[in-house]
Specification:
single chain; 560 residues; alpha+beta; Hypothetical protein af1432; Alpha-Beta Plaits; 3 domains; five-stranded mixed sheet; 27 helices; 5 strands; 58% helix
């Protein structure tokens, strides 16, 4: 899809050096966002009509006639607003012929929001590949429609702000493409091809996601505070107003709906169902019926933006596929990856290239900071499996791998989130029981693929806000916010069974080699002075206890 991939890091590093020239030393990921947003704010500004609309509507004695005259200065914008107002999305009782009627039927605030949503800087879209741009618009328009309809049907509120929030939330993706160049776009397109969670991957690779950048940019543009709060939505939910919290929850559900319908991912249905139940107690049948009503409204909005949707699968088709996939277990998907030799390497390559770009923003001291949440290489320091050794099925305690700052950084963030929300937090460490034996019988390349299979199996648990990171050369760490010890133990048994049942075990491996050691530590609502390293150390002790028991055993402990 792209050429010149190997050259991208050097080329982008030069661009980033230019962007960062003359600025002070950064200390955390918030500084990275501020720096990119500041640069973007200089390059991309709202059109004059949008700025004038913002100014007019901020006045307590706003003049509807003046607002109408302002919008009419841009005939294309006027036509776009009227087309949307007349679509089934708004469901007005009669056709609207001009802005006077639109103002009379909708009011000033909804019309203002529509203008802002349709007045994006054209420079943001220049140079973006057609594939990425098509994905962006399909996802964004689906999310905007879903947000509006969810707000009105289930939250029983006007859906105008939710609609615009959905329309604007992913602008940060375009900013990153423009600011960081090809490496970020290659990273996104690779994730699109694979159907991966873009926000989660961004956070793992850069320490932040594009919606956080969007919020910074909208603040610079002077957009309403409620929209900015909802789009940013910090982990501490008490920091935002009730109205922003409501819109943020709607966006969370709308994002899942956009992954399902806009991105055409049947596997995302489970996310929609879980979010609907958790946020508004909506049952599965009701939310599936809701999804099936969105097609026409999305298509009509897409016409306004000249976005093709004729080749998008319908909601009914996606629902049918999703139901067919319910019986598919993580092992089958994992086995496919083992058979596709290039997939794990390509995926890691894209993440490494993006991480290299972000590293150019930081000096060595900052890169070592545990506050930076970054994905580690698959060759993280740990117990070597490359040296010849006897079959490693002994019950001797294994040396623990060197602690990865990325793991501690993610764990620190999870501790903070769980303390603020009064949640339990579990850390699960998983490791193949006999990696040396596996390396000798399968080769290092296949061992690496099996580690990737384990990583994928953890991701397929789809526990909300969970994070999967490498742990040594032959394992991974699974951070589980809002998770009780009992549930984590069930996850552990499921993963042990999944790995043990992989078909590759029938191809000559010694009996029992595809066995996991699993250790879990839980803290029930971390205290203010709780040290994240304590959770890691307790989980590591349980992992060793599992190993000395012969593997395939889940050991767990609760700490205080």
């Amino acid at each position: 899809m792209f050429s010149g991939i190997q050259a991208a890091p050097c080329r982008l590093a030069a661009n980033v050096d230019f962007l960062c020239a003359g600025t002070s030393r950064m200390t955390d990921s918030a500084s990275i966002i501020d720096r990119i947003a500041a640069r973007a704010g200089e390059l991309y500004t709202l059109p004059a009509v949008a700025m004038e609309v913002l100014d007019l509507t901020e006045r307590p004695d706003v003049d509807a006639a003046a607002l109408k005259r302002c919008i009419e200065k841009d005939p294309a914008l006027t036509a776009k607003v009227l087309r949307v107002v007349n679509s089934s999305l708004f469901g007005l009782p009669r056709s609207v012929a001009d802005l006077n009627q639109a103002l009379a039927l909708l009011g000033i605030k909804p019309l203002k929001l529509l203008v802002l949503g349709f007045s994006l800087p054209p420079e943001l879209f220049q140079g973006v590949t057609p594939t990425t741009l098509e994905f962006y618009w399909r996802h964004t328009l689906t999310k905007a429609v879903a947000a509006r309809e969810l707000c009105e049907q289930f939250w029983k509120r006007s859906g105008d702000e939710a609609f615009i929030a959905g329309l604007l939330q992913d602008l940060g993706m375009l900013v990153l493409i423009r600011q960081l160049g090809g490496a970020y776009e290659q990273f996104v397109e690779k994730l699109i091809d694979r159907g991966d969670d873009i926000l989660a991957r961004e956070t793992q690779s850069m320490g932040f996601n594009h919606t956080q950048l969007t919020a910074r940019l909208l603040t610079q543009w002077g957009l309403p505070g409620t929209l900015v709060e909802a789009i940013a939505y910090p982990a501490d939910k008490e920091q935002v107003s009730a109205s922003a919290r409501m819109i943020a929850e709607i966006l969370e559900l709308a994002e899942a709906a956009a992954c399902f319908l806009g991105d055409g991912k049947p596997s995302a249905l489970s996310q929609v169902v879980e979010a609907a139940a958790a946020l508004q107690n909506i049952d599965r049948d009701t939310i599936e019926t809701f999804l099936s009503t969105l097609d026409e409204k999305v298509s009509q909005l897409a016409e306004v933006f000249s976005v093709r949707t004729d080749d998008m699968p319908s909601a009914q088709e996606l629902l049918a596929r999703a139901h067919q996939q319910l019986a598919v277990v993580a092992a089958s998907a994992a086995t496919d990856i083992v058979r596709q030799d290039e997939m794990p390497e390509e995926r890691l390559q894209e993440e490494d290239e993006l991480a290299a770009v972000m590293d150019a923003y930081m000096d060595d001291d900052f890169r070592a900071s545990p506050r930076l949440v970054a994905t580690s290489s698959s060759t993280a320091t740990g117990t070597s499996v490359s040296a010849p050794a006897e079959a490693n099925t002994s019950t001797a305690t294994l040396a623990e791998p060197e602690v990865d700052p990325g793991l501690l950084g993610n764990l620190s963030a999870a501790v903070l989130t769980c303390r603020q929300n009064h949640w339990a937090l579990c850390l699960m460490l998983l490791r193949y029981h006999a990696p040396d034996t596996m390396a000798m019988q399968l080769g290092m390349d296949n061992l690496d693929k099996l580690v990737r299979v384990l990583h994928l199996a953890c991701e397929r648990l789809e526990h909300p806000a969970s994070v999967v990171l490498p742990y040594g050369d032959a394992g991974c760490a699974l951070i589980l916010p809002d998770c009780e010890r009992k549930q984590a133990v069930e996850y552990g048994h499921y993963l042990v069974d999944t790995i043990r049942s992989l078909p590759i075990g029938k191809g000559g491996l010694a009996q029992g080699v595809l066995t996991l050691d699993v250790g879990i530590a839980e803290v029930d609502v971390p205290s203010r002075n709780f040290e994240p390293r304590r959770l890691l150390e307790a989980a590591a002790r349980c992992l060793n206890a599992s190993h000395t028991s012969g593997g395939a055993v889940v050991k767990s402990i609760e700490i205080y």
